[in-house]
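> @MW can you paste both from yesterday?
MW: sure, first one:
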Amino acid sequence: MNKILRSVLIVVLSAVLIWSLARIGLTVGDYKTADAIYEKSRNESFHITESTPEVPVSNISEEYFPEVSVDFESLTKTNPDVVGWLYIPDTDINFPLLRAADNWKYLSLSYNLQSTNSGSIFMDFRNSVDLSDDNTLIYGHNMKSGGMFGKLKEFGVSDYLTEHPDFYVFTETQVFKYRIFSAYKTQADSPSYTLSFSEDPDYKGFIDYIKDCTGENITDTPEENTPLITLSTCTSGQRSGRFVVHAYLVASNVMEGTSLENKKE
């Protein structure tokens, strides 16, 4: 009898081991697929001719914009839902930005509509693609590989935030420069996801709420009514846990080919 039980146990454990290894293999394969998709998009559609100057970030003018060209014609031909490009210099966050008719579609689809657990970086479907809302929400998965928004939580470390204060959103007609001023853990149903400040909380109330959430890890505060962007990802171990990064608009510029006149907000 013991021999039978031992044999059954060996078979069961072997099956569990094979299943676990297969799942690991599929997960790793999915990571590699997503990495290849987005690396290809960067190589083909995102071109930097002048990156951020190698000087202390505090010495970089607010009016400075990196010289970047984005092939939106190719991107929108691949997928009409592409509305922009999100670029945080000197980080791995450099992706096409999408918006669908809901917030579910791109949880499991890449920008080229290929099925992948990494999904896409996408804007809340309620937001305007011209980034004119009080608070534009942008979502991405917290991948264990560090892909997508997997490294967003590093902005919770004050030194990292200080070294990477600015990011850019490119659209077909404009480039927008944002400055990060807050990063913290929150919940999916928190006021952090407020879209409009016409109702409670108002703008000042929202900034005060952010200050309470951030504590000492707040680097700056925007002037009232300055448009905001909130980058959001999940946190491991909590179904409704989220990590958010708030940034405010510093300046905008029309994309090269239409005009080079700077438009300081």
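MW: second:
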Amino acid sequence: MPTDTPEARIARLDAYESRFIPKLAAALIKSVEPAISAYEQGATPSLAAAYVKDTHVGTVLEQLYRTVAVDEAKRTYDTLTEGQKAQAPGTLADGWVARARDFLRGEGRMTLQGITERTQGVVRDVLEAAQELGLSIPDAARRLRQTVTGIARERAIAICRTEINASSNAGSLWGAQATGLALQKQWLDTKDGRARPTHVAANGQKAPLDGFFSVGQGRGRYPGDPLLPVGERARCRCTQTYVPID
């Protein structure tokens, strides 16, 4: 059965990251501007933090999910059905686009909420520290912008690596499910010596296409699944392959 090579897949993930990391870093910076405006108008640090908006970050994540998941769904479908069916018809692609769009409103919502809450924590901590130091409002606002800008890229890297792998594996699973073939999925670790012990232990584990992998103390439909504990999905680059049902 045709398969994707690990090297080709990692190269695609790297390309996706190069595309979306700058966008997400910019969105993280923009997300604090309403909070800064509120603080400049007299809001307390806690109240100002509540003004952090998820609009910009949500827009980038939706673009990421739609791009990566749909690309990988089509790639998996075409690979698994090579020589058996025509390329994925437009109706399938439309369905994948809809699923990717809904992803952020469903399980992906937990990710967006977590990002927003962490940003709110940064806003609150920086402004409270500025008050303790007796900084003026303009100086506190300047310090907050500098802090957020300084950490935006590293945060964007961590988020993109996690969410790109998750959406890649989700899309791949959609593509496999759409083939109608009698397949099961199999966990595949990165083989680079950096995989978590729980992911090394999961390597080779098989599950029905609609089933779950057992990973550490969690269960997920694919590597990077938002249903997994954060410690089992953050920065994960494992994937799944597909094999005939035993």
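> thanks! Strands lie at 183-188, 206-208, 213-215, 218-220, 239-244.
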